[in-house]
Specification:
The structure is a homotetramer. By secondary structure, chain A is mainly α. Chain A is built from ten helices and no strands. The structure holds a DNA duplex. Chains A, B, C, D: It comes from Glutamicibacter protophormiae (Brevibacterium protophormiae).
Amino acid sequence: MQLGQIHRAAVSCFARKGFAATGIRELGAAVGLNSATLYHYVGGKQELLLGVIRNCLDAMIDGAQDAIEDADPAQRLASLVAFHVGFTATNPQTARVAEYEMRSLSGEHRAAMQSLRDEYEQLFTDALADGERAGLFHAPDAGMARLAIMEMGTGVAHWYRPGGRLALAQVQLNFIQMALRILAAEPAVPEELPVPARLDSEPNDPEGAR
Amino acid sequence: MQLGQIHRAAVSCFARKGFAATGIRELGAAVGLNSATLYHYVGGKQELLLGVIRNCLDAMIDGAQDAIEDADPAQRLASLVAFHVGFTATNPQTARVAEYEMRSLSGEHRAAMQSLRDEYEQLFTDALADGERAGLFHAPDAGMARLAIMEMGTGVAHWYRPGGRLALAQVQLNFIQMALRILAAEPAVPEELPVPARLDSEPNDPEGAR
Amino acid sequence: MQLGQIHRAAVSCFARKGFAATGIRELGAAVGLNSATLYHYVGGKQELLLGVIRNCLDAMIDGAQDAIEDADPAQRLASLVAFHVGFTATNPQTARVAEYEMRSLSGEHRAAMQSLRDEYEQLFTDALADGERAGLFHAPDAGMARLAIMEMGTGVAHWYRPGGRLALAQVQLNFIQMALRILAAEPAVPEELPVPARLDSEPNDPEGAR
Amino acid sequence: MQLGQIHRAAVSCFARKGFAATGIRELGAAVGLNSATLYHYVGGKQELLLGVIRNCLDAMIDGAQDAIEDADPAQRLASLVAFHVGFTATNPQTARVAEYEMRSLSGEHRAAMQSLRDEYEQLFTDALADGERAGLFHAPDAGMARLAIMEMGTGVAHWYRPGGRLALAQVQLNFIQMALRILAAEPAVPEELPVPARLDSEPNDPEGAR
DNA sequence: CATGAATGAGGGTTCATTCAT
DNA sequence: GATGAATGAACCCTCATTCAT
């Protein structure tokens, strides 16, 4: 309960200044806690980061799996793109921390998280392969296409702000269209657009960065 | 003279562990210099980072401007994409540091570098606007398309390794095709593919991260 | 609580070797504290010095003001001289640090402390002017006389040691006599000699210097 | 020759910020020399300070000895006071460095310089003893009187500036008068007022301190 | 004469973490 | 739960000094 606040403060700082540049006293102050008290809630700086990243990746995997119940490969990919973009737009700071600060995890923690991310990315790889096999997608290079599509979705964290010019659904639809165009596929739309949940760790305050 | 070595070591460390997590003694050791001697060459940690980023952004602006002498808007955009991808693939670590660690610059340094990056991005914005005006591009949203195209090019730093599976020119051509597809434009290819120079700051050793 | 100890150690070192030549680890060791723990009590080296000097000057101003309730100008001056000499003899090291190391304060801190010292010196200037006006003092140059009188009192810090050859009261009386002689005034003695308090910052150990 | 410039710069810095707080590069910059070049002229930081102090104390002893050819003990003391005040007023910064920074000398250097200062002070002690013996002086305490007289003369360095309100000779005469008053001696004036030379080490620029 | 390069030691300060209270 | 006190390690940086050129 209180832990949500802590995660929010952590993500806000980590996203803005980076994990290494964020002090534990600073985090404590942000939630009105003595730095020593933080150690009752989270086990330490590393564990805090690990918790944030794990929650994020878990949510990404769960959300993505929920989104791909469609039968049609094109719709499956469209759902994945919509989820990826939607999740990133809904949790821009958490998503960025989960990406950038993987390197700040040490040893086995990083390996564990990396395998979660691999699992997530595999969903995209599979969908793309299915589409290729079904003759629906015609990318010059399937691997590069997947990377490009995911990367451009991830980039949404850099500029999308809830309540901005574009509604989330519109952004999702646009990215679906761009992704399918990259694959030279027929336009498609998932039966229903996935609406990713806002994580506990996502700060309420808009960030100033970029 | 050995400033190139220093920049290389710095970029290697900054890309792998981040600016804040990199110690100045560590950098010195990486080039066989006492930490105090580093201060003889670079003025300090901030100045070192600033130098790296400035050199990188300068090269990006110069290279991109050289690349857009084509008359045709589609070719101009193709050239820009090819340069962007080529530069990122040739200098993946430097490019990533220049992007990620902007936040580690303080105050006016960051503002100055941000304005350089804005200048670079403006080239893409202009090319896209020209193509739209000429009726060549049909993106659902011009702004989002530009961000998506740039972002997917930037993402190349995450996976491309010189000497890997794909030749640089092939990657450039693929990205040109993907970008034009996003814009629903006719296929186009620049008169000659830009061949971005390798920066002094780009380490020779492949990175371990990601 | 043990802040007194810290101040004492600081004054002892500052008086012996000077502020700039004193290391913070050295100070910590002198009170059996890790250098980092010092920062828990005092905010830093500057703040430590500032605290010492401010306490000293506050005590000087308070003590001097308490000492000048006499009506007669000559007695007033005698009281001031007695206090000045007494304070300096009782807190020789603290007094010297407060004088010598003013220059080690930076910017506004120095200005603030200088104005406290001005306030203190003004008490002497006023007493002298009153005596002159009343025709009791006949110095060749009032300004020079004030400086001479104060300076010779300050000099007590260089040689007086509690428990030495002379009792404090005897020293005070001698200085009163010398001061009044400088002013060609009739001998006078305050109703009661001020007995300045020993500051928390005054070390117990006799100093080795000079 | 060049050495005079160096000493001047050194004294200027040492008087303003103290020996420990003055960097050797700083001194080099002040005379337009590389820090390494300083080592050709002066052997090191310690040696530089030693040279300054020794020159100063030598000049003080020589000057004082020259000044006491008078037969009459009162005139002898008057000459000494006049010299002391005159020297201090003429070389305020050098004199202060020679006094304050004795502590920055290490080991035998300090002992040697201290014995020079003792030799200088002995001249005053002797003159005072002669006067006492001759029944000319009647101080409550001869030792204290000597300290007071010397200290008030030394204090001149804190406020006297060449070209200020008072001519040097006037200051000297005033101090003679004050000193003799302290001793309850008849007014006396030396046959001729000693005119102390300006040392090579005395900076031309007026100091800002105090 | 003069200097740039180089270094080991140390400067003040902040760090994540622990623990008795 | 919560905290102030405490610490060793590390932080970036500056120091006086040396030496080949």
